[in-house]
Hints:
Blueprint: E1 7-8, H1 9-15, H2 20-26, E2 27-31, E3 34-37, H3 44-54, E4 60-61, H4 63-69, E5 81-84, E6 94-97, E7 106-109, E8 112-115, H5 117-124, H6 130-144, H7 148-157, H8 164-173, H9 181-192, E9 199-205, E10 212-219, E11 224-228, H10 232-235, H11 237-252, E12 256-260, H12 266-283
Parallel strand pairs: 5-6, 11-12
Antiparallel strand pairs: 1-3, 2-3, 4-5, 7-8, 9-10, 10-11
Amino acid sequence: MDDGTPFIGSEALASGALTPYELRRHYRAVMPNVYLERRIEPTLRQRTRAAWLWSGRSAVVAGLSASALHGAKWVDDGAPVELIWGNARSPRQVITRADYLAAGETCLIAGMSVTTPARAAFDVGRRGTIGDAVARVDSLLAVTRFAMDDVVAMAGEHVGARGLRQLRRVLDLADAGAKSPRETWLRLLLIGAGYPRPRTQIPLISPDGRRRYYLDMGWEELRIAVEYDGDHHRSDAAQFAGDIRRLADIDELGWRLVRVVARSSRDDVLRRVQRAWDRRSTLR
């Protein structure tokens, strides 16, 4: 009971694993009749298991919760747990939906029934803003490499589901090469401004052949790259030194690099990209 795994309180009492005093003294309820060691602040994964136990092990973990279990990054640890289960009276921070699941749309993870990566993409791609939906599908696609055709086929089996029009657009825009939600934002900004869809994770070899790099996104024919730099690029001394050498190599290879940071405005980004585009276009 002390390994950080949620458990059903009544089962622990019935089996004799805990006494009522021990349950009250050392554990706390994180869901009705589901307990966790008192000192632990539950993660999304722990809350997901607790919610699944609360359902009597009957629910299917879905949406962002399923994405996280499949390994998708950037899922907020404080996000509500999402379950497919016919119970509208759910605890706080648990969302239940009585959605239809077709054959082959679930799998097992750590003993729990969970929607497959394709079904998780089907769900997260239909909800929220299109930018958030693309970022969520990007993250799931990067770790699972689910087949887009499977999601398209799924849409045909769920004709009455909400958000199918958005889902088609999201699938068209999704890219496994995005390494963060901000990279997704940057790619969508460029596409929305009318630029050709940039290629992501463009491989480069340093001029001396000793180092291999990947550019976040760009257009190879013009040798223009656009990259999003997180704070770690400046706060990590080793990363900063490596960046200097990397930038010198990229410049020597003839690429023009537009660097974007968190405080860069949309107008500033597009202005600098257009300047690079105009200069390179006149040289062709």
